[in-house]
Amino acid sequence: MILAFITVRLLDILDIFLVAVLLYQSYRLIRGTVAMDIFIGIVSFYFLWRVVSSLHMELLSNILGQFIGVGVLVLVIVFQQEIRRFLLILGTRYAVFRKQYVGFNKLLNNNVSLVTKSNIDAIVHAAFTMSKSQTGALIVFSPHVDLTTYVQTGESLDAAISSTLLQTIFFKNSPLHDGAVLIFGNRIKGAKAVLPSTERSDLPVDYGMRHRSAIGMSEETKAIVIVVSEQTGNVSYCLNGQIYTIETPEALQKALETQTRKGGR
Q1: Cross-sheet strand order for the sheet of 235-239
Q2: Which of 43, 176, 184, 216 is a plausible cystine mate for 196, CB 3.0–4.6 Å?
Q3: How far is the CA of 117 from the CAs of 13, 95, 186, 254, 261, in angstroms?
Q4: How do residues 143-154 score in pLDDT, each as one tens digit?
Q5: Of 55, 89, 108, which residue sits at a domain end?
Q6: What is the pTM of this model?
Q7: Number of domains in the chain
Q8: How far apart are CA 146 and CA 151, in angstroms?
């Protein structure tokens, strides 16, 4: 039988394992971001090319093949943020000789606790308390998608979520009040972070940098971004490039809980 000629070496098993780890980590990096949709599009494009080639449709196959030929360059351009995040993780979280051993359980673990209702309540309470005093705020809430890239632009933190802490950070005399607070899972991971600004030209003229940054962040990731206006005290949130005005704490709490249940998909 043909199978009798197939030999499986220990290195083959190791090879399969390393490829599986690499694919899993790649999935973690792009999960919950617009890059996931782009990746699906690229895979679909590749399979279309394979189907066209197998049907011997020469003209279309050659045209699609030209795009596949420069695929590596396209991937580097499209996924530059994710590649940067991957290199940051390699250099910080998954160092080979960290503490003199390799923690495979940490390598394969998301290390993210499920978001609790009390933490969502704290975020909602802080937002509407700051709304009453017209304290400007920008909060990125990401239940499942790592925000390491954006943490690097500000001050790194690792604090429990509390309404008091959030209000303290955005107090006008606080050195951390400019920029965004980054919440990942059940922890405040960063403050004073710089977010990407949207390039949209159809926004109302009264939208300042906080609103433009919130929309820009929601365009690049699938995090939900809460904005408290310093001028009006209005509370809004951005998701998938769209901004929604929130009138009640219950409405904001429902939006945060919905995003948590979606798992960043």
Answers
A1: 155-160, 187-193, 180-184, 137-142, 224-228, 235-239, 242-246
A2: 216
A3: 43, 34, 10, 11, 12
A4: 877 788 888 889
A5: 108
A6: 0.63
A7: 2
A8: 10
